[in-house]
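Hi everyone, sorry if this is the wrong subforum. Our group has a chain we'd like a structural model of before ordering constructs, and none of us has done structure prediction before. Sequence below.
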Amino acid sequence: MAMVLHRITGEVLYDHSEETLVGANLRGMDLRGADLSELELARADLRDADLRGADLSGASLAGARLKRVRMNGANCSRADLSNVDLRDAHGDLIVAPDRFHSEVC
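Answer:
Right subforum, don't worry. Here is the predicted structure as tokens:
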């Protein structure tokens, strides 16, 4: 079972019945401050989600749908952002340029 916890409080923000979050439907979820570091989120649907202050460092988001996501202060260092859909995304990201391979942006 995959769980998403708040990076400071440890509060469970999302509890997924599968072992990974590959292809998970997280659309519109409030994941502010979530610890998503090192998680496998490839092809996940995060459209309209709130990821402000989330830690996505080292996460695999390859092919994820991030359209209209709010990401102010999200840490995306070392994250695999290849082929992500960031159209109409909002916010400033902390990104390691060598790992940012999105064809959309």
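For your construct planning: The chain has one domain: 1-105. The two ends are 32 Å apart (CA to CA).
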